[in-house]
Amino acid sequence: MENQKQKIKKVFEKFTKNKQIHESVLLIENSGGDFSYHLEYGGKKTDTPILTASITKLFTSTCILILREQEKLSLDDKIAKYFEEDTLSSLHIYKGREYSMDLTLSNLLFHTSGLTDAIEEGSNKAKKRAIYKDRQMSFDETITKTKQLKPHFEPDMGKRAHYANVNFDILGKVIEIVTNSTLEDVYKQFIFDPLGLKNTYLPIDEDDFVPNVYYKDTSFYIPKTIRSIRASGGCISTARELMIFIKAFFGGRLFNKTIFHELGVNNKLQAAMSPIHYGAGYMKIPLGGLVTLFMGKGELLGHSGSTGSFAFYYPASDLFFVGDVNQMANPALPVRLVMRLAMSIRS
Fold first, then answer.
1. 3-state secondary structure of 17
2. Phi, then psi, of 64 in degrees rounded to 5
3. What CATH number is attached to the domain comprising 10?
4. C-alpha distances in angstroms, 115 versus 145, 161, 234?
5. What is the pLDDT of residues 87-119, one digit of tens each?
6. I need a labelling partner for 5 at 20 to 30 A (CA). Which of 11, 108, 200, 231 fits?
7. Angle formed at CA 329 by CA 212 and CA 10, multiple of 5 degrees
8. With contact defined as beta carbons under 8 Å apart, do 42 and 23 qualify?
9. pLDDT in the model for residue 264
């Protein structure tokens, strides 16, 4: 164990010398809990609030999978079952044919819808505006902006997957429609209360604390933006509570974990996100490919966030990695860190 800790510390200290990283926290534990090790940098601690960003998709996926177990929805359901035709009309038109009414919940969960991300792909300036200009955007506005962009492919086209936040924004709205409740209340009922998470929440008004996030050397406060992407990236947590959640997600405490075998399909995401694949609401990162010069073993399962957050399980060593590097300028940073950690302690 001490040898593992030394390897972890060496990777972490080398990584946090990166000029883009101003603060960071890392927590590593095994399933049994008899191994726990944390490292801190720049004043960030295991109980410091973290903007989890796209790790939120794991929370949304959890709710979808629980509702599926309760037989309140099916992944084969067309989203047309839950929305008015006016809402969906022209959402997905590819090569002159409309697929809007054919999209399924599965297409959204696996990112196989082909839909485009309005912020990331809308224009070269769209992402920068989202960072520098904090503004609220409603669900209807998100849908309208998505309709203005061309989809990448027809739904379920080959083995293609394209990561787009709008997929989970729609899933969040479906959760609210099915439960006749707010997303924050469903999170609380299905996840936060059962796991005893006291410092994990979806901010809903100006009184709810939202951490600052770095873009290069500047620290930004973007609470309106965060409240606009609740189901795809709006959750706040801590490293300590993310560890509880990620263990529960893959350990069967929230839903039957046989679902990972039942829904075992995963597809490679767009080239910009290589080597990440996407399964039923979670990322899968193989460690044995070209990116590691075939020296890795196994795979990482979980999610990273564009703000530098990460929550992954490494089955080959039975270890969970959670934490944050708090940097939006390079979304690959958290993935690179966890890959290096896994490679350094591979069994």
1. coil
2. -60, -45
3. 3.40.710.10
4. 11, 10, 20
5. 999 999 999 999 999 999 999 999 999 999 987
6. 200
7. 90
8. yes
9. 87
Here the tokens at position 130 are 């989202």
The sign of the CA dihedral 280, 285, 287, 290 is positive
Q: What angle do CA 197, 329, 36 make, to 5 degrees?
A: 35
CB within 8 Å of 58: residues ≥ 6 apart: 245, 246, 249, 281, 282, 302, 303, 311
* Integer Cα distance of 9 and 2 in angstroms: 10
Residue pointed to by tokens 């002159």: 96
The number of distinct structural domains making up the chain is 1
Residues of the chain with pLDDT under 50: 124, 294
Residues 7 and 344: beta-carbon distance below 8 Å: yes
Residue 290: predicted pLDDT: 61
Place of tokens 């767009």: 270
Rounded to an integer, what distance in angstroms lies between the CA atom of residue 18 and that of residue 231? 31
**pLDDT for the residue 118:** 84
71 contacts: CB under 8 Å, gap ≥ 6: none
Residue 199's domain spans which residues?
2-344
